[in-house]
């Protein structure tokens, strides 16, 4: 695989990449924490989070998440 060939990039170092729905999820979790885990009081935040996640279903993944796949593919062609 890619690690044997020395081709590996730690995806955690790409911290500047925006995570989809992070604000909505944070708002929902904060609301749950403030309301003692009673989700009936957080319906607005819950609906916003569900809407955001449904919009993300059809979008392609970020290139930073698939960089290791491409490195493995290139390494496989190079070393075989």
From TrEMBL:
GO MF: structural constituent of ribosome
InterPro entries (UniProt xref): CX9C, Cys_alpha_HP_mot_SF, Ribosomal_mS37_fun
UniProt domain IMS import disulfide relay-system CHCH-CHCH-like Cx9C: residue ranges: 17-54
GO cellular component: mitochondrion
Highest taxon of source: Eukaryota
GO biological process: mitochondrial translation
SUPFAM superfamilies, sorted: Cysteine alpha-hairpin motif
Protein name per Swiss-Prot or TrEMBL: IMS import disulfide relay-system CHCH-CHCH-like Cx9C domain-containing protein
Organism whose genome encodes this protein: Aegilops tauschii subsp. strangulata (Goatgrass)
Organism lineage: Eukaryota, Viridiplantae, Streptophyta, Embryophyta, Tracheophyta
